[in-house]
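Structure ticket #2291
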Amino acid sequence: MTKLKQYSLLNEKTRYQLLATVIVNIITFGHGVGVGWLSPTLSKIQTPDTPLDFQVDIAEISWLGSMLGLGSLFGNLTIAFLLERMGRKFCIYLLAGPYACLWILIYCASNVYYLYVARFLCGFTGGAGYLVVPIYISEVADSSIRGSLTSMVMLSVNLGVLVGYILSTYLAYHIVPFLAIILPIAYFTANLFLPETAPYLLRRSQLNAAETSFRYYQNQKRGMEQVSKANFDELRLAIDAQQAQSHAALTYRDLITKTALKAFAASIVLSTGYQFSGIFSFINYMSTIFEASGSILDVNICTIIIGVVQIVGVYTSTILVDIIGRRILMLISTLGVALGCIVFGCFTYSAQFYDLSYLNWVPLVLMIIIIYLGNIGLIGLFFVVLVELFPAKIRSLATSMSVVFLSVLVFGTLKLFPLLLHYFGISVTMWFSAASSLLTFVYFLLFLPETKGKSMIED
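Resolution: structure written out below.
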């Protein structure tokens, strides 16, 4: 019973850690709304009945998709520069501005370039948020629930994607921005009440502020309990030891140690598998995929169903990540996505030669399986594993470098995916995704370490 209570997210000691996680994830939820908004909207703005004063073609669609990756790259570089200089809280505040601007641009769009910039800002918010939010959560959360809290980043994104699907499917184009702009206002206001993280304050030699922060996130307003005092002293000594060892300056030699290189290799495979498995591209172009698969079911209803499945998948990972660990969920996820994409490709290939209309439900079922399995590991735990892979000394820089690499991949895959569908067809696209997932599974099976319970202050 005591052990179950220790791992409970509603434990009295950790309730402010949960509250802080929910508050900072308002922006990741909002990013998800921006991502999900695109898929049903594309089908509207390609027709003569477009709610805008212009239509878009296949080349413009590929740019609309890929601008997310370009924005993510710039967002990550910006936050990487500011993260250690200005702190986690400043970077968290910063995200509200560009996110509000993207909905203003969507509402005012008079040509496709407005939408390009809006998608760029959506990517900027995501790229910045994917860096600062997991680091912030990892620094305020107890190790017993850190995996569950960090995995809420993708749970929030997927919930936002579902809401984006629903809003853009059933509401008029110009109504959605009016509703969505409430999010950055709520996000900025709620974050005013959260203190900076204790580890960052300790690195800045702000001992009193660090102790106040530590007490807040441990829900100890009147003073520290003996155990928490010992934990704070341990944290302080560990950070002092890091700084004494490094003498402040981080050098390139820290990035080429054996441990660091292994972590970089794992992060490269993790990022490549995440993008080339196709899961993120599927989410952005879900309505287009169902149209290409020949399914006669309503594509927007199918897209919304997939949005629900994403949430169930990430919620599953949130429950299991601190129980069975990261590695086994990653293995199940990558192998499952590979097999699912192979079968999906075979079905759509066979449908070119045989009448399979009586099996029109199969693409939806297969996509449910693919998306669910992708979200229990490869998507749901991506940032959990990424942050935990690196030694403490290089974590901020290395995580930033990894997300820069991921952003480049996002740009490339979202630019190429609609072109692959258009020129090579759905079957070849799915088989390519399957091959990428299978290779990722093999690497994880051989080399991915288990990071469950790893200390965030020690290498």
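Closing remark: Residues 9-194 form a domain with the Growth Hormone; Chain: A; fold (CATH 1.20.1250.20).
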